[in-house]
Specification:
The chain contains eleven helices and 14 strands. The protein has 368 residues and is an alpha/beta fold. A five-stranded parallel β-sheet has the order 7-8-9-10-11. Helix 4 runs parallel beside helix 5 and helix 5 runs parallel beside helix 6. The longest helix has 19 residues. It binds zinc ion. Zinc ion (ZN) binds next to loops. Zinc ion binds next to loops.
Amino acid sequence: MVLVEDGAIRLTDFTGAAPPEYATVTDFGPDGWLLPGLIDAHVHLCWDGTKDAVAHVSSDDRETVLETARASATTTLQDGVTTVRDLGDRGYLSLVLREQTPSTEIPEIVAAGPPITTPGGHCHLLGGEAEGADALVAAVRNRAARGCDVVKVMASGGNVTPGSNPLHQQYDRSDLRLIVEEAHRLGLRTAAHAHAVPAVADAVDAGFDTVEHFSFFTPEGIDLRQEVVDEVVQRGTFVSLTVGMAPGTAPVHPGIAARFAAMTEHVAKVIASGARVVPGTDAGATHGKPHGVYPYALIQLAELGMPNRDVLRSATSEAAEAVGRRGRKGVLRPGADADLLVLGSSPIDDMSAIADIRAVYRAGHRVR
Ligand SMILES: [Zn+2]
């Protein structure tokens, strides 16, 4: 039993006690499974999840992109994903969406604004170009002033930006350290996008709270470095693993397609490594990653060897800590937000139950 009042969990009871007399009761029966709402650690609400997502988010007019973001957010909420961390919008539109929309209509948005990137670098069309110590510090301060929760940095190039190479580093260690230091000083969390081996190593060394993708790309393939994993484990860095593809889709970017089998094997190794892993779908970024892909991410984690209980923990309480919402999200505990998901069968027995949704609550309001 979870008693909800004013959008928050007032009390919980797992002993079979009767609800208080004044409460309005919704009984999901003996087969119902109640979970905290799920958390996606890496989405792009402004991106439409098509092959041309980069072109659309870069060149569509502001109102169109805002509409895309609104549609992405409402779709995501229907899957029981009640918190998302948006790691790259255009022109701070994820913050605009958050300000304009009643909180019960969309997931809670933990916002980065436009990712900090080098001039002409990965995702530069989103508006976050900055280079040199003064500009980087100013970029972090600007995000804090606008109300961002997290600073996202492109430590390496990426796959979806024409002209960008994921094997190239965009910033050196001292730049990355400076960004982390300034962000933490201002109370913001930090996330680094890192594909190439040295970019992953530098991001971990610089003290980012989460490292996105954690790909360990080399020109030949993938090379998971044990010494970097050891440092991640020792520091408690969260690895935001890019998982989840819509059924029947395949990667469209040549660099990803060529490495796809190796990437799957790599993800399984990271899961087994002892690092703290949270699911980040990268929903919206490209074809195969539509908003609504999250259930497939959890099914994939289970298929790749993560025990089902650990998958659920990574998607709730662990992810809440990774995105800076510890205690308020991802737990069924008095004082936490009443973001709830009800399933029709046990995800401990079979992770596909994550798509067998009976109800979704956001801040105490039933939205499905
Ligand atoms: Zn991304």
